[in-house]
Design brief:
Order of helices and strands: HHHHHHHHHHHHHHHHHHHH
Number of strands: 0
Number of helices: 20
Distance between the termini: 68 Å
Strand content: under 5%
Shape: globular
Radius of gyration: 24 Å
Low-confidence stretches: 1-14, 509-513
Helix content: over 70%
Amino acid sequence: MKPVPPAEDPTTATNTRRLVVTGAAFMIVGRLAVRSISVISTLILARLLVPEDFGIVALAAAIFAVVDLISTTNFALVVVRRASVDRSFYDTAWTMNLLRCLLLGGLVVLTAEWQAGLMREPRLTPVLMLIALNVALDGLASIGLARLQREMRFDLLFRQQVIVKIAAFTITIVLAYFWRSYWALVLGHTLAKLIAIPYGYWLAPHRPRFSLRHWRELLSFSKWSLLMNACAVADGQAPNLVLGRLLGMQSVGMYNIAYQVAATPVTEIAVPVRGPIYAGYARSMHDKALLGREFLNGFGFLFTVLLPLSVGIALVAPEIERIALGPRWEGVAPLMTLCALYALVDAMAHFNFNMFTVLDQLRRFVATYSIIVLVRVPAVVLGAMWAGAEGALVAMLATGVLNAAIWHHQVGRLLGHGLGDALAQIWRGILAAAAMAAAVLALRGLLPPGAGDMLQALRDLSILAPAGAVVHVVTQLLLWQLCGRPAGPERRLLSLAGRMLARLRPRPFAASR
């Protein structure tokens, strides 16, 4: 019989929640800063390069991701969730990651020509060779960065992300300006990595030693990681591989630019909070009732923030295309609309993933994920054959809604709540987003016609975006008032806004004696 863990002290729970919130704030700010740099970089590169250039690099990255994710071990997760970690455990994790990266790099080199032939694109061969060097260099990264996550030092992780991204941005833009080739994207990443690795050791010092002392424990966890990552590869890289095989490099490039621009709110808010949330879940794992409340609260809050941003981008995609990308990317707006909505529902599905790791339910996770992939991948193939890139994205969006419902049902069974409890957190936001969409579409029809150039797009965006935001906020607050102002994401957002405003108010000078 397993010993019953002691009840969590309320002070400890409060401190954990504060650390998670602070860590999430640092990671969100860091991710927003990094993504802002990425978006600026993408928009500049879109003016210097053509869709086919982005397609070649994106397809090469997708091919590499298939091999990389399948062999990824997620040793950092083991470091975070383990009760205690000594020097030898860090050294073992570093050694095994180095061996993995060297083997993976060699495998990519040996199969580069074959993979290029499979995709009918000979230019992929040298690109894959350079990517193989990049992954070999990844094996040299400091394992001390995992220690920072374990210690919830997200301020330092924030600094590391921003510095590395600025270096990559500067190098890539300079190379693209003088070279005007897809090689600027690949070499920029390689040169930035040569800066990132020593900076990681300076920020999180750890003098690694070769050790395999704890290899059994790490591999025991990694057997599930292998299956999880195989599902993640099929799930995440299917669009690139399917479009590359069926439609060519231009379609791959159009899809990737559309996703990079349209999915920004999700990738730069939802993704970075997973680290702090995982660390917080790990501290509350013995109190299932508390864990369930934290899960629902976090889900409702994140959905309420992301929904208007994603729907807003979907609604003004034509204006974004004309302002940000230019004539070379004409026709990408419908893809941006679908990408924004798909990224939202996919993030809401992925929000559940950490819970399976924390509760040691990886068998259930892999079984569920496998079924989901077996539905999604054929749907993407059929969608691409039916209507090209748009058809593939329609299939991804439809399966994304289904997947989110399945994942929340599974987590509800683990934590003791139902889909209705999750829906209660978000239904007001959904109705508010519908009102926003109706208002923006109606207002666009009333705007006077123009020349269809950038100036008209700027005019329309300056009218549609604020109007949509006002309609959404007013509708959601009105629904909240009609429901009796219950505890939920609206109250938390208003409380957070109040605290931020209080900090911005000028403080009176202390009276002099």
